[in-house]
Structures are given as C-alpha cells and as structure tokens.
Design goal:
Elements: H1 2-6, E1 17-22, H2 40-48, E2 49-51, E3 64-70, E4 75-87, E5 96-104, E6 114-117, E7 125-127, H3 131-135, E8 137-141, E9 156-158, H4 159-167, H5 172-178, E10 182-189, E11 195-200, H6 205-216, H7 222-230, E12 247-255, H8 261-274
Parallel strand pairs: 1-3
Antiparallel strand pairs: 1-7, 2-5, 3-4, 4-5, 4-6, 6-8, 9-12, 10-11, 10-12
Helix pairs in contact: 4-6
Length: 285
C-alpha cells in the first residue's frame, strides 16, 4: 500500500488508509450473506453504516477505506477501495453513523487479485499504519485468467456464478460452448432441495435461456417466481426478492443445434418424470 500510495498523483500515506475485512453472514439479512452480495451498491450500503461508538469504529476515519472480503479462515481478498468524504451528519441515529463514500481507483489493479493473511479475523478493521497491519502477509497476487470450460457434464453453477458466466469475458469458452447447443437443464433450490427441469431449444440455446435467469432470477417460470415471492411473505408480490441466490444450475443433456424440437421435448418430459419434479418439485406441467 505504501508503494502504490507513493506513486499516486496526490501521494497516499499509510495514515490515510483504513483497512476493513467483511465476512459473510448467511443468516443476517442486514449483512453481506454471500458472494452474490458483492455488487457495488450492497457493499457500499453495508460499509457506510458504522457504529456510533468511537471505540468500535474511529470517530474520524481516514480518507481511504480498503475493503477485503473473507476468502477462507484467514485468507482475505481485495474487493476494492472507497474514498471517505466524512460523516453525513444528517443521517446519524442513536446507534449508527453514516459516511459519504465513493469508489476510488486506489489499488484497483489489484482488485480480486491480492490475497492477504488477516492474522486475527475477530479484529475486522484497523489503521493502515498500525503494527498489526504491517504483520499481515501477502499470500498471492493472482492472475485473472480465463475460466476453462469443464465440459457439459461438469457444469455446476451457483446463481452468483451464473450471472458472472453470462457476462464476464473470462468465461468466453463457456459462452461459446453453451451458445451452440440446445438442451435440458436442472435448477436445484439449495434451501429446500426442490428441483426444476427446463429446456432450451430452437435458436435460444442454453446460453440464451440462462441469460434470462441471470437477469430476473426466475426466467418467467411460474413456480420459480412464486417461490421467490413466498420467501418474502405470501401476497407481497410488489417486493423484488433475492431467493435466486439459492439456485444451482446444471445440465442433464445437450443436443446439437439441428436436433428437432420434438426430440428435445421428449427428453424434457422424461427427466421430469424420472426426477418426479411435477409431483415433488417445481414443474407445473
């Protein structure tokens, strides 16, 4: 940090830096519950809210907040950096302070690549100039290489990874393979074990069908949409939910682009019957 800071147009010293480690808390809806919550808006909202007590968080924290995400017991991966513009006094409550944070380019070349050993996970923030920060070792600076396609039988994606796969060029081999085939896919809800068998045929292909799930979490399927709304309370269908975080995507069978629709339809019906997803799962027909 000292080396990169010295190279900035306006030099950044270690005293200008506060280092923060966020860990996932799956059962806390106010926290970051998993990798799917690492979008900018969620991390910003979570980070800018701090305890009112200066014993729990500095009364006047420094300009740059360097954010790491727990990546194992002590491993912590750089998420990015916020620039602190000070407390927003009008938002203060009896228990919390809120800070005006904006995204900073400081350390951006190392984002998602720098992994350090956070020696004491219970101490989740510390000054960049502290002795405890100096003791933390760099574990690796990883390359952001492309992700190799594992073959159709090896496809197994959480919803968060599905969203990455359909957009990130590191998954170019995946995108190329899945854009060429029709097929039968399986969605498993990891929160309850229920399954949905679906198909992608005609010109849509697997990639095109899965892009719709990446956008809205249910792909227009009635049962998946209802399941999402049930997670926030029956009848509350005006609320957008994030129940799709529990979905895991895999492939049951693929077909070449010229395979007739009746053959794909027959395979879909077979898997619905074999997995009993009409009776016990999420298929309605």
């Amino acid at each position: 940090m000292a080396g990169v800071g010295a190279e900035q147009e306006q030099p950044v010293s270690l005293s200008d830096v506060h280092v923060i480690r966020h860990s996932f808390r799956p059962n806390d809806e106010t926290a970051l519950r998993g990798p799917e919550d690492l979008a900018l808006d969620k991390v910003l909202r979570y980070t800018r809210e701090q305890d009112i007590s200066p014993r729990r968080f500095p009364a006047d924290p420094p300009r740059f907040w360097v954010i790491f995400i727990a990546d194992g017991k002590n491993r912590s991966r750089l998420w990015g950096t916020f620039e602190n513009h000070g407390e927003v006094a009008g938002e203060r409550t009896a228990s919390c302070r809120y800070f005006g944070l904006t995204v900073s380019d400081f350390l951006s070349p190392l984002r998602d690549r720098l992994v350090i050993d956070w020696d004491n996970p219970r101490s989740w923030h510390r000054s960049g100039s502290s002795a405890s920060t100096a003791r933390m070792q760099v574990v690796e600076i990883a390359d952001r290489d492309k992700v190799p396609f594992p073959g159709f039988d090896g496809v197994l994606l959480s919803y968060h990874l599905l969203q990455e796969m359909v957009e990130d060029r590191r998954y170019a081999d995946w995108q190329a393979a899945l854009s060429e085939v029709q097929g039968i896919y399986l969605i498993t809800d990891s929160s309850n074990g229920k399954q949905y068998v679906g198909k992608a045929d005609g010109s849509e292909r697997i990639l095109g069908r899965w892009q719709t799930y990446a956008r809205d979490g249910h792909g227009g399927n009635v049962a998946l949409r209802e399941l999402a709304y049930e997670s926030v309370g029956a009848g509350n269908q005006s609320v957008r939910t994030d129940h799709a975080r529990h979905f895991v995507f895999s492939l049951l069978r693929v077909f070449g682009p010229s395979t007739p629709s009746f053959e794909v339809n027959a395979a879909e019906s077979h898997y619905k019957a074999a997995l009993m997803t009409r009776k016990f799962g999420l298929n309605r027909n």
